[in-house]
Amino acid sequence: MASPKSNEPTEIRCEEKSRGGMCYEVILAEPSADKPTPPATSSPRPKSMTAEEIEQKLLQAEERRKSMEASRLASVGERMTRLEEASRKREENTAAFIAATQAALEDKLDTTTNNREAYLNGLRAKLSDHLNNVDGVRKQLEAQTNDLRQTIEDKLRSAEENRTENLGKMLEKLKEHEDYAQKVRLGHEEAIRQLEERIQAKIAVATNKRESEILKKLETLREHDRRAEMVRANKERIMAAEKQDAASSG
C-alpha cells in the first residue's frame, strides 16, 4: 500500500563545478501558494467511501506522484544537459580565449622586444650623433680659442708698438708744450717789464706834472699875495691922501 502524498515541496539539488572554481547549484521544487482556507459551508456531509474506493484513489495519487516525479526528473535531466552544454561551450570559449590571449601576449612580447631593440638602436645612433656633435663643437671651440688667443697677442704687440709710438709723440708734444710755455712765460715777463716801464714813465710824468702844477699854484699864490699887497698899499696911500686933503681943508 502506498503512503499518502506529503505536503512538503520536493527539492532536487544539482551541483556543478567548473575549472575556474565556480560552483552552480540548481534547486527544483513544486510551486507552492498559500491559499486562503475557504469558509465553512453548511454543505451536506459526503457519504462514506468504501475501502476499495479509498484504495483506488490512493493508487491514482501514487501514479500521479510518480508521473510528476518522472516529469521533474526529465526536466532536471534536460536542464543538466543544457548546463553541461553551456559548461562545455564555456570551457571551449575559455580555452580559445586563453590561446588567443597567449598568442597575443607572445606577439606583443615579440613586438615589444623588436621595438626595444629598435629603440636601443635609435638611442645608440642618437648618442653617436650627439658625441660627434660634441666633438665637432669642441674642435670648433678650440679653433675659436686659438684664433682669439692669436688675435689678443697681435693686439698686444700692436698695442706695445702703438704705446711706444704714442709715448714718443707725447714726449714730443710735451717738449713743444714746454717750449711754447717758455715762450709764453718770456712774453709775459716782457709784457710785465714793458708795463712796469710804462707805469714808471706815467708815474714820472704824473710826478713832474704834479710838481709843475704845484709850482704854478705857488706862483699864482705869490702873484695873488703881491696884488693883494699892492691893493692894500694903494688903499693905504689913498686913505692917507684923503686924510691929508681933509686936514688941509679944515
From TrEMBL:
> What are the boundaries of the region Disordered?
29-51, 63-92
How is this protein annotated for GO cellular component?
cytoplasm; neuron projection
In the record, what terms sit under GO molecular function?
tubulin binding
**Gene3D superfamilies under this entry?**
6.10.280.30
InterPro entries the UniProt entry points to = Stathmin_fam, Stathmin_sf
Question: What's a BP term from Gene Ontology annotated to this protein?
Answer: microtubule depolymerization
Q: Name one matching Pfam family.
A: Stathmin
Cited PANTHER family: STATHMIN, STATHMIN, ISOFORM D
Q: What is this protein called?
A: Stathmin
Q: Which organism is it from?
A: Scylla paramamosain
Starting at the broadest rank, the lineage of the source organism is:
Eukaryota, Metazoa, Ecdysozoa, Arthropoda, Crustacea
